[in-house]
Design a protein that fits this description.
Spore Coat Polysaccharide Biosynthesis Protein SpsA, Chain A, alpha/beta, 4 strands, 10% strand, 4-stranded parallel beta sheet, 45% helix, 218 residues, single chain, 8 helices, 2 domains
Length: 218
């Protein structure tokens, strides 16, 4: 939400005033020593070389506090695309790895999971992200995982830092953080939730008490 609406259980940190980027990144550099940070970038061949991804790459080259970057490639079974992604991201100074989430080796793993009633889902950003998380957890060299898309046209180092900070900081007890930006249009996006669903759920809480499911819905 672009206004100052708070949902209760989930806190919203609004961008108020100018940010001291040097201080933010300095703090994250200290946090990274004790809780290493990994950034996941799910991408597709269609995004490769786009102005948005070129801007993201230019910004990330200046981010010094990351322990590793994992680029996860989906929606292609063409080895040439895998090679192109490796070449494109090779300029990153950080330790990085390209995971071919739709490649033949992972497809065999997905089939094995399916055979054991554990589906990784269809080829897409969700499966690519899930695969990258598994890769990071299996290596056990990073303790905090961040992810953002590869089509963000207004990407900035501040955006990356603000995404990591609440979870990376040992002084803030957050396990999950989601970044968002305002979408100002003449539509009524989200108003049904606030004007109907939220009042309804909170009325039910008053009637039946703080039942876990109702609190979750709220």
């Amino acid at each position: 939400m672009a206004d100052f609406y708070q949902t209760g259980l989930l806190a919203t940190f609004h961008r108020l005033g100018a940010l001291n980027l040097e201080r933010l990144e300095g703090d994250l550099g200290k946090f990274n020593k004790h809780r290493p940070l990994a950034l996941v970038l799910p991408t597709t061949p269609k995004e490769l070389g786009s102005p948005a991804l070129q801007g993201i790459l230019a910004n990330l080259k200046q981010v010094k506090y990351l322990n590793e970057i994992v680029i996860t490639l989906g929606r292609t079974d063409d080895p040439a695309h895998f090679a192109q992604v490796q070449e494109f991201f090779s300029v990153l100074p950080q330790r990085h790895q390209v995971v071919w989430a739709s490649g033949p080796r992972f497809l065999e793993l997905y089939k094995l999971l399916e055979a054991n009633d554990l589906s990784a889902g269809p080829d897409g950003k969700g499966r690519s992200a899930w695969t990258a998380y598994g890769y990071i957890l299996a290596r056990d060299e990073s303790k905090v995982i961040g992810l953002h898309d590869c089509d963000i046209v207004n990407h900035s180092r501040e955006m990356v830092g603000r995404l990591f900070y609440p979870v990376a900081s040992p002084h803030i007890d957050y396990a999950f953080c989601k970044g968002y930006y305002a979408r100002v249009t003449d539509r009524m996006h989200g108003r049904v939730t606030r004007l109907f669903v939220t009042p309804l759920v909170r009325s039910l809480i008053k009637l039946f008490g703080y039942l876990p499911f109702l609190v979750y819905l709220d």
